[in-house]
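From: lab user (bench 3)
To: helpdesk
Subject: output format question, protein + zinc ion

Hello, I'm new to running complex predictions and I'm not sure whether the block I got back is the full result or only part of it. Here's what I submitted:
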Amino acid sequence: MSCEECADLTTHQFRSAADLVHAVQTAAGEMERGVLRRVEAAQLTDAEREAMQSVFDAGAQTTLLYRFQCTVCGDQFELAGDAESGNGGWTRLEPVVTPSSDAP
Ligand SMILES: [Zn+2]
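Helpdesk reply: Thanks, we reran it on our side. This is the complete output you should expect:
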C-alpha cells in the first residue's frame, strides 16, 4: 500500500532512546521534504488515547505520540515511545477505509 516516498518507513520497534530520536528526526526530515504531514492528536479517538495510556503505564511523563500521514499515498504512521527508556516503535497503520468521506 506504500508508495515510493514512504516505502522505507517500515514498522519497527525502538531498542533505545537513540532509535526513538532517530525516528523523530527521520519524520521531521520527511515533513521538510513534504512527504509526511502531521496528523493532529486531536483526531485520535478516545479508544486510541486509552490504548496509548495502557501501553505506557501511568507515571511515565516522557511518552511521545505522533501521527503522520504520507501526502502521496495517504498511508498513516504512528510514532510512539518513551523518551527516557526508548521503549516504543514506529508503526505503519492499516489504511483507514472511508469511501464516502474524503476530508481535506
Ligand atoms: Zn506514501
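A quick orientation on your result: The beta strands are 12-13, 36-39, 63-70, 76-82, 88-92. Let us know if anything else is unclear.
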